[in-house]
């Protein structure tokens, strides 16, 4: 069996899911080629698990000071190049296409009538979720952006639907707590804004991962270059995490049993929904501006109990290898069976 796996690379969560799926698919004897789009090749890092991967321009969004910049997003994307890439992608050697919300592979599969399944957080929006009802807005966009024959959604709760648990890596480092050490990952925020938020709290040490080349220490703010391994080490020992509201990172934080203070990216419906769901489930606090009173209240909280998610990657790889012979409903029921969840209040 040979698969082409398309990954939307705008956010690191999509890439992380592919990192988890790659060895699980290999264990099933499945040959996989990877295609990434939505990010410049020079901005991709720690890509060794994907071998000789391909990169296309795809579609992405632009951000300015923590908000979606709609004009730049419109002008920096090229529909002409997208169509060219879709038409040029030859799928004849592949038995199946997997799209993690990646448009080039999904549309090429649709045009060439190749079987295509989607595995992504976005496909959970087909079902009712707590919060502002963003699914009604997102679903037409999801169907247009990356059309698939079957979409497998992932979320922190099943919400009585065929939604699977998060698809994340096991934490490779022992979970400890270094009091006062806060991990910060706010890639969509202006660096000076982050600095102004963190400067008043000099009784804490902030490890801020951002797009720089070398480490920089500024009193109690330690700026660190992007590194998957370094980030996971900091995640394992930190006292808490401050981050934007991407699904993948929040899932890792819950799995590690770390408290989370999160800022959804303004104008990004998925992150707005994620923030609402986290608040509804009592799993995180949400902020728009980092204020002293909220920070100290959050920082004083004890670490929550880790959430023991099952090995979703292995279950999905076996399901794919068997020809997707069971329904998504049955697969979801099996995977959630041993996960301890608080009841959802409507």
Automatic annotation (TrEMBL):
<dbReference type="Pfam" id="PF13528">
    <property type="entry name" value="Glyco_trans_1_3"/>
</dbReference>
<dbReference type="InterPro" id="IPR005262">
    <property type="entry name" value="MJ1255-like"/>
</dbReference>
<protein>
    <recommendedName>
        <fullName>Glycosyltransferase</fullName>
    </recommendedName>
</protein>
